[in-house]
Amino acid sequence: VQLVESGGGLVEPGGSLRLSCVASGFTFRDSGMSWYRQAPGKEREEVAWIGIGRISTNYPDSVKGRFTISTDNRKNTVYLQMNSLKPDDTAAYYCNTPGARASDYWGQGTQVTVSS
To answer: Using the 8-state DSSP alphabet, how is residue 26 labeled?
Structure first.
C-alpha cells in the first residue's frame, strides 16, 4: 500500500484548499476512502468518508458543509475540497481506508495551516 497526499499549504481564514491523495497497492475502486487530520497534541480524527459506490459520504459536524470528499477511480485518487477554512482546521491531513488504525500504514500527510 502507498498513499501520497498533496495540496496542503498556508491559507488565510475563509480560504480554500483542495487536497489530493494518490493510492496504490490495493483495489481502489473496491474500497471506501477517508480523510483524517491530526493537529499537534490531538488525536487523529476522521473528517470525511466516501463509500465504495462513491455516492454516500459522511462528515463530522465540525466540517460538514465546508468539506467535500470525492474520488476519481480512473486515477486512484481521492480529493478533499475544503472551503471556509478556519484556524481550527490547521493540522496534518492524511487519506486512508475507513477505520484505519494507528498501526496501519500511513502516508506522509500534507500540512494545512490556516492563519492570517
So the answer is: S
